[in-house]
């Protein structure tokens, strides 16, 4: 924990966990305020978990979620009221502590001298000068001037953001580049399926963010509040302003755990797990090892989602483990898919169906998870078969692996960069924004009709870098994206169906068929997934070494 005192009655901190409650009680805290909405980060415990742990220690806990960078005056008023009502001292937390500090600073405007507010927050390590500027301007942060300026600003330091920063540096080392991201840890998320299958250890999928930011690139450790493209400005948490010449938007997507009633309160207990969260993937393997009979349910929400094959990968690896232990015959496997097909590219379905039959799994299409009662071990699904009457069914389970609904981050959905569905609106070939010529997007947050995978970002990063450099040189776009994505479907321990495809489901194999036939399960593809892809990710992709990812030249038909 990194607890910073602002006043004797209030301290703020970055994200806390249930395991921190005893220490917080020992430090004298009597109440906790959560200012972070559930589902904001891949490694984030939900408020339900925090509440249960706090109550067990005799602490009060209050949920006052504030969307990253969107602290409203009414939020500050609610914060002030909570501080009055809760027993002190109080710990308020969010992702980094900035939102909580901002709420306090705004709540004190008019009652404390501004110099005292700035001094208290600065002593705690939070710069609230932007808040002062907002108060002085009647609640608005002016963006005609900035606190910093760069040639290229990249929002998001996930697979896409770091890769495009490295690719830009390899092309133009003179560029002033900044990456904006509040996270301390960078995750290799494709590895979480392997953690849930007992193949990788969690630590193999995590590195400190500071160790991965390319040399010569400035890391701004903050969350984005808003975009003002008419002024080439990004507004940060704490109301600071960063100006850009070119902007790249790639903050990933949001796992919307709250969209399933009761899910947050039961994650990580009662047999409810998900490989979509770093701290829960090990629980998946614990459940698989402990289950000897009963019903195992695996869910898939409506598209789009990160890695469309991940929900069934969890099913296959679990079933394979049960088969090897000789208990599969006693386990009823149910795959509940909100969509109408097993996999969106038909060429790979026959091989997958062989494993569905091998594991005697039941496929239930058009079943969308809407509620979970963890203690009762019951899951409720809306069933909407085309042409049929809408219905709702409740299924008992001994274990359930949940893939959460997924949406664009809140600060993207409300921004002028988003389309009607909330995703960044780009040209699917050049990845340039359709309305703003100096903005590009890549990775999971954009609206191009491709699979949302790390493999897709690996191909997109050099394309965006190439096109930005061309733009800086006064030229039009020179590289195009063909929709490439890859989904290594782990159908059993030791074999993978290596699905590689582009726009429209066109097959895009990286290897000759005699080496890896992507439409069939192969050991070569497993070796690639287990042994080759992690080092390629850490040592090539994130360092601007574009192995098998050279940009494709833009054709006249794509312009």
UniProtKB/TrEMBL annotation:
Q: What is an annotated GO biological process for this record, any one?
A: sulfide oxidation, using sulfide:quinone oxidoreductase
Q: Does the keyword Oxidoreductase apply?
A: yes
Output the Pfam families linked to this UniProt entry. Answer: BLH_phosphatase, Pyr_redox_2
- Domain Beta-lactamase hydrolase-like protein phosphatase-like, by residue range, is 2-110
The residue stretches assigned to a coiled coil in this entry are: none
GO molecular function terms listed in the Swiss-Prot or TrEMBL record: FAD binding; hydrolase activity; quinone binding; sulfide:quinone oxidoreductase activity
Q: Which residues form the signal peptide?
A: none
Write down the CDD domains for this protein, in alphabetical order: PTP-bact
Q: Which UniProt keywords apply?
A: FAD, Flavoprotein, Oxidoreductase, Quinone, Transit peptide
- Using the record's annotation, list all stretches that form the FAD/NAD(P)-binding domain: 150-270
Superkingdom of this protein's organism:
Bacteria
Q: Which cofactor does it need?
A: FAD
Note the SUPFAM superfamilies from the entry. Answer: (Phosphotyrosine protein) phosphatases II, FAD/NAD(P)-binding domain
Q: What is the protein's name according to its record?
A: Sulfide:quinone oxidoreductase
Q: Please give the organism.
A: Paracoccus homiensis
């Amino acid at each position: 924990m990194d607890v910073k005192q602002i006043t004797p009655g209030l301290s703020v901190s970055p994200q806390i966990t249930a395991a921190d409650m005893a220490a917080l009680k020992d430090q004298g805290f009597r109440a906790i305020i959560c200012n972070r909405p559930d589902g904001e980060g891949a490694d984030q415990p939900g408020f339900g978990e925090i509440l249960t742990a706090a109550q067990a220690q005799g602490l009060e806990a209050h949920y006052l979620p504030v969307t990253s960078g969107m602290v409203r005056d009414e939020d500050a008023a609610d914060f002030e009221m909570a501080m009055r009502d809760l027993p002190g001292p109080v710990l308020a937390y969010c992702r980094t502590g900035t939102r909580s500090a901002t709420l306090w600073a705004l709540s004190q405007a008019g009652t404390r001298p501004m110099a005292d507010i700035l001094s208290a927050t600065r002593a705690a390590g939070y710069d609230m000068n932007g808040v002062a500027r907002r108060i002085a301007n009647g609640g608005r942060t002016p963006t005609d001037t900035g606190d910093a300026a760069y040639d290229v600003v990249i929002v998001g330091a996930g697979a896409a953001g770091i890769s495009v920063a490295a690719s830009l540096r390899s092309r133009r080392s003179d560029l002033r580049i900044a990456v904006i991201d509040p996270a301390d840890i960078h995750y290799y998320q494709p590895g979480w399926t392997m953690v849930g299958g007992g193949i990788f250890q969690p630590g193999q999928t995590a590195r400190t963010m500071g160790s991965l930011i390319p040399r010569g690139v400035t890391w701004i450790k903050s969350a984005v509040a808003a975009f003002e493209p008419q002024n080439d400005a990004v507004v940060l948490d704490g109301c600071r302003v960063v100006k850009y010449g070119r902007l790249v938007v790639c903050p990933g997507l949001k796992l919307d755990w709250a969209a399933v009633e009761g899910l947050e309160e039961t994650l990580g207990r009662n047999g409810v797990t998900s490989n979509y969260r770093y701290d829960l993937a090990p629980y998946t393997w614990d459940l698989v090892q402990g289950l000897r009979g009963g019903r195992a349910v695996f869910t898939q929400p409506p598209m789009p989602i990160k890695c469309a094959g991940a929900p069934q990968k969890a099913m296959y690896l679990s079933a394979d483990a049960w088969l090897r232990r000789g208990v599969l015959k006693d386990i009823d496997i149910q795959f509940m898919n909100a969509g109408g097909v097993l996999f969106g590219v038909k060429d790979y379905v026959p091989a997958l169906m062989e494993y569905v039959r091998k594991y005697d799994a039941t496929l239930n299409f058009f079943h969308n998870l809407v509620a979970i009662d963890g203690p009762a071990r019951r899951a409720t699904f809306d069933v909407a078969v085309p042409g049929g009457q809408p219905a709702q069914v409740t299924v008992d389970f001994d274990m359930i692996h949940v893939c959460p609904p997924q949406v664009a981050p809140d600060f993207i959905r409300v921004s002028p960069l988003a389309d009607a569905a909330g995703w960044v609106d780009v040209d699917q070939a050049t990845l340039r924004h359709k309305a703003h010529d100096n903005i590009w997007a890549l990775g999971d947050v954009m609206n191009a009709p491709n699979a949302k995978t790390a493999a897709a970002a690996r191909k997109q990063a050099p394309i965006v870098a190439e096109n930005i450099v061309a733009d800086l040189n006064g030229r039009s776009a020179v590289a195009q994206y063909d929709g490439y994505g890859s989904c290594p479907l782990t159908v059993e321990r030791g074999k993978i169906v290596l699905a590689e495809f582009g726009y429209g489901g066109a097959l895009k194999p990286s290897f000759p068929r005699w080496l890896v036939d992507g439409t069939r399960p192969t050991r070569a593809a497993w070796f690639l997934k287990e042994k080759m892809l992690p080092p390629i990710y850490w040592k090539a992709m994130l360092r601007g070494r574009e192995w098998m990812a050279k940009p494709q030249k833009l054709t006249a038909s794509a312009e």
